[in-house]
């Protein structure tokens, strides 16, 4: 598994790892220590090996790729100095002792854009006090929420960053023409064959110079259901009242006009039931799939699943925004899905049918 994880970095960059013979500076992968951890970059003066801890619960390829990333110089993606332009940290949802995990670092992005899908990005519930109930990281763009920490391999932007860190294309005969690689593309690592290096193209681009874009072009795969809602109407999951592959995570960003609030009547709500487990972290939680509903704050809400919300339940946003985010996968999909009626009411309107959704939490 370690060799496999190393291969992921070797295949996308100019880095090559060799087994130690008599070297004094080297990486030592250890399974006898607690947790998953690594120092960032090469630490000078360590002659007994630099540890990469692959402790209990860390024996997954994506985790090992992540820890190797630290060892070769990567900070966490959400520690970038420009992170506040992409994410919001819900400080109230984590212990004060964990605040330092979200410090912004001094590392350079090397001109590479922020990446929610980076192998180095924390998941949305990292260090939360309420797993499967509260997020600690929220995307500024609601439709990006389910992308956070979703990377299971080195992303395009991870590869681009590392190739810049280690000047992997420096030997390319056409290195001065890297600007020919369009739309964020970059020259591939030099292979020592004297030939020009081709462009490595971002997702959803093609052509010799990455000049051909899929329409509409977007670096990320946009949620295939949901969208911005600004008019009265019905919203529902694809295929309702059945749920069929491919599993779609959805996001509805309901935005009321000035002077109005968003009101949602849940006509049907049916998802994978809450988990039954002896582990208190998972027991009675929305482990398999979850629907986050935000009525008070754009970046923070509560998570529901199963039959948590009875038909006829009506909820109204505190301000102009009402957000519904479904986070699911094909193995988790159960139930009929969601169907709801969206209307907009005067901001001063009150209705006895309104219910506080958190009252349905066990």
Concise synopsis of the structure shown:
The chain is mostly beta strands. The protein is built from 3 helices and 18 strands.
Strand content: 15-25%
Please tell me what the overall shape is.
Answer: globular
Low-confidence stretches: 358-362
Overall structural class, as computed from helix and strand content, comes to: mainly beta
Number of helices: 3
Biggest sheet character = 5 strands, mixed
* Number of E-state strands: 18
Radius of gyration, rounded? 23 Å
Pfam family, one: CUB
Enzyme class: hydrolase
Subunit structure: Monomer.
Protein name: Metalloendopeptidase
Describe this structure in words.
Helices cover 9% and strands 24% of the residues. A hairpin with a 2-residue loop joins strand 14 and strand 15 (300-304). The chain starts with a helix and ends in a 16-residue tail after the last strand. It is globular, with a radius of gyration of 23 Å. The strands form six sheets. It has a five-stranded mixed β-sheet with strand order 10-12-17-14-15, with no helix packed on it. The protein has a four-stranded antiparallel β-sheet with strand order 11-18-13-16, with no helix packed on it. Strands 1-3-2 form a three-stranded mixed β-sheet, covered by helices on one side. It has helices at residues 2-12, 61-71, 156-165; strands at 27-30, 36-38, 50-54, 87-89, 137-139, 186-187, 199-200, 205-206, 212-213, 225-229, 233-236, 250-255, 260-270, 290-297, 300-304, 313-316, 321-327, 337-346. The chain is mainly beta and 362 residues long. Helix 1 crosses helix 2 (61-71). Residues 225-345 form the CUB domain. Monomer. Zn(2+) binds at residues 66, 70, 76.
């Amino acid at each position: 598994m370690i060799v496999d994880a190393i291969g992921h970095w070797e295949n996308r960059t100019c880095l090559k790892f060799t087994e130690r013979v008599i070297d004094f500076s080297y990486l030592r992968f250890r399974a006898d220590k607690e947790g998953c951890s690594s120092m960032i970059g090469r630490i000078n003066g360590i002659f007994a090996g630099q540890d990469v801890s692959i402790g209990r619960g860390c024996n997954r390829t994506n985790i090992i790729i992540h820890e190797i990333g630290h060892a070769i110089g990567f900070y966490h993606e959400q520690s970038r100095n420009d992170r506040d332009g992409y994410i919001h940290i819900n400080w109230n949802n984590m212990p004060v002792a964990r605040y330092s995990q979200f410090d912004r670092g001094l590392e350079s992005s090397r001109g590479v854009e922020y990446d929610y899908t980076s192998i180095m990005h924390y998941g949305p519930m990292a260090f939360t006090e309420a797993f499967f109930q509260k997020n600690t990281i929220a995307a500024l763009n609601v439709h990006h929420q389910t992308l956070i920490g979703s990377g299971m391999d080195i992303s395009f932007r991870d590869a681009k960053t590392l190739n810049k860190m280690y000047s992997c294309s420096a030997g390319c005969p056409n290195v001065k023409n890297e600007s020919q690689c369009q739309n964020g593309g970059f020259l591939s690592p030099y292979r020592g064959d004297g030939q020009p290096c081709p462009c490595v193209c971002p997702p959803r681009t093609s052509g010799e110079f990455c000049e051909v874009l899929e329409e509409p072009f977007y670096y990320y795969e946009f949620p295939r259901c949901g969208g911005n809602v600004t008019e009265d109407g019905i919203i529902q999951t694809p295929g309702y009242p059945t749920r069929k592959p491919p599993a779609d995570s959805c996001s509805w960003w309901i935005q009321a006009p000035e002077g109005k609030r968003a009101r949602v009547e849940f006509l049907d709500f049916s998802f994978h039931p809450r988990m039954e487990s002896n582990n208190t972290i998972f027991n009675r939680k929305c482990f398999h799939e979850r629907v986050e509903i935000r009525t008070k704050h754009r970046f923070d809400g509560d998570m529901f699943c199963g039959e948590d919300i009875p038909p006829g339940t009506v909820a109204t946003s505190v301000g102009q925004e009402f957000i519904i985010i479904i986070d699911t996968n094909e193995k988790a999909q159960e139930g009929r899905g969601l169907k709801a009626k969206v209307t907009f009411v005067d901001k001063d309107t009150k209705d006895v049918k309104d219910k506080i959704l958190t009252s349905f939490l066990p």
